Amino acid sequence: MKVSDILRVKGNTLFSMAPLEPLAHAVEIMAEKDLGSLVVMDHGDLVGMLTFREVILAIVKNGGHVGDTTVRGAMDDHPLTCSPETELDEVRRMMLERHARYMPVMSNRMLMGVISFYDVAKTVVDSQNFENKMLKAYIRDWPGGNDPATPSNEA
Predict the structure, then answer these.
(1) Measured torsion, CA atoms of residues 120, 101, 107, 94, in degrees rounded to the nearest 10
(2) Closest C-alpha to 82, from 72, 70, 95
(3) Per residue in 7-29, pLDDT tens?
(4) Pairing of the two strands 37-42 and 45-51
(5) How far is residue 66's CA from residue 62's CA, in Å, rounded to a whole number?
(6) For residues 135 and 117, which has the higher predicted lDDT (pLDDT)?
(7) What is the Cβ-side half-sphere exposure of residue 13, based on CA atoms within 13 angstroms?
(8) Residue 25 contacts residue 38 (beta carbons within 8 Å)
(9) Which of 7, 22, 41, 77 has its CB 3.0 to 4.6 Å from that of 16, i.e. a possible disulfide?
């Protein structure tokens, strides 16, 4: 499976911020929209990622207040990215290695979406459930009509 499979199901609603916006405004949007991350864009280019992790670190650094911090002052300016063609196994490895919960999906320099670790885990579980159902149906329809899990009286 590829990242494009997640994006197809997830949809294409994106939330972004400019780097010079106040962090307080970004936090308001994240709370209002129930978002764990915002993509930081400047003149159409991805320049960073703001997640609840960066927000918490900025608040702690500022003595428990957001203060006058800008999005640029708090964001991760080297976010992990992938493409729609990246395999999910590779995405899982990358996210685990960097402890990343959110990953922008880029095609060339165009932002295609953001996937979360939850999106990846859900896709893997859904895929495994589908495979399990298919295998069970195949076993039920075994040639000869007998359920292979039921012992036969034939010797």
Answers:
(1) -80
(2) 95
(3) 988 877 889 999 999 999 999 99
(4) antiparallel
(5) 7
(6) 117
(7) 4
(8) no
(9) 41
Residues paired with 106 in a beta bridge: 111
pLDDT at 144: 64
- CA–CA dist 19, 70 (Å, integer): 7
Q: Name beta bridge partners: 110.
A: 107
Band of the pLDDT at 76, cuts 50, 70, 90?
A: very high
- CA–CA dist 51, 74 (Å, integer): 9
pTM, rounded to two decimals = 0.78
Phi, psi of 113 (to 5 degrees): 160, -175
Q: Which residues on neighbouring strands pair with residue 16, listed in sequence order?
A: 39
Place of tokens 């209002």: 32
Domains and CATH numbers, the chain: 3-140 (3.10.580.10)
Three-state DSSP state, 40:
strand
